[in-house]
Amino acid sequence: MRKGILSAIVALSIILIVGSVQPAAAQFYTQHNLVSDGFVPADHPDANMVNAWGLASGPTSPWWIADNGSGRTTLYNVGTGAVQAVFTVPGARGQQGTPTGVVFNGGTGFVVNNGAGVSPARFIFSAEDGTISAFRGNPIVIVVDNSASGAVYKGLAIASTTTGDFLYATNFHAGTVDVFNSTFHFVPMPGKFTDPNLPAGYAPFGIRNIGGIIYVTYALQDADRHDDVAGEGHGFVNAFDTAGNLLRRVASKGQLNSPWGLALAPGNFGFFSGDLLVGNFGNGRIHAFDPANFNGQGEFQHRGPLHSADGSPIAIDGLWAIAFGSGAPNNGPTNTLFFTAGPDGERHGLFGTLVVAP
């Protein structure tokens, strides 16, 4: 009997110890799939959603999703649950488009003439074929074409500064951040978006303007300098000002795995409220970094990955963009994290949400 009691106490101690290292309830998150091309179960089908990549919305607009694999953009209305519209994104030399990043422009710059009228573009796309295209109404038109130089634009950000409005495109092939003014002309930046301590073979991959700071993710280039080489520790994140001056290294290697998506969590996003969220394309995990506390290298303190209710890290195959809603009926609550993905080797597409588990 005494031996049995001792065994029970030991077993209970093990359970308590194991339980103590599990994420707290507020750290659990629930995934819900809204739209897919049919490969992954979701609420709504959309055959155009192939390798869903960039994700953007205006303050009240639906979500605009860059469908890299079909050369289109899908508009999804969260309020009605419907695919509201689909537009073709043109490609270089008349080929099918390959859109990646997308941004919303709420200003008066970036004026385009698409043959049907002249006005500021509201949504602007980067593409792997080295083009940037803009929407002011159908049709979408190419406004920058650097395909001849071999540019591969993997991501896009936009910023309004005291010296004007600018687009920032990550040129994965050249290893640069290419900047364009509000008339779509290339402009050199004083800081040049360089990091002298970045290892050779890494290039700008994802990019986002968060509160006036330009965050850039880096992935390892393949031999053709066209695609990333996924792997544990393959990645970096830097923070720059809008002139391209390096502010700090945010994260290095560790749990990074071809990081692309970036989002700042609001104050009501559970355990990771207020953290910088970084999405790994390489393994589909989302890691949180505390911008208010730093590790021994002066980087943001790593706080861990988002977990599902069973305690396992959430992994979304082919994860690309992550972004919170703007609080409007068309694009969802400000504490709902929307995501895009290209599962099964980018052959399919998915758009969904992550929320704090009840």
Strand residue percentage: 35-45%
The CATH superfamily turns out to be TolB, C-terminal domain
> Largest sheet, if any?
5 strands, mixed
The gross shape turns out to be globular
The CATH architecture category equals: 6 Propeller
Distance between the termini: 42 Å
The domain tally reads: 1
Q: How are the strands ordered across the major sheet?
A: 2-1-26-25-24
Helix content: under 10%
Q: Determine the mean pLDDT.
A: 94
Element-level helix/strand string: HEEEEEEEEEEEEEEEEEEEEEEEEEHE
Number of helices: 2
The CATH C-level class name: Mainly Beta
Low-confidence stretches: 1-22
Rg computed from alpha carbons, rounded to a whole number of angstroms: 21 Å
What name is given to the CATH topology? Neuraminidase
Number of strands: 26
**Structural class assignment:** mainly beta
**Assembly status:** single chain
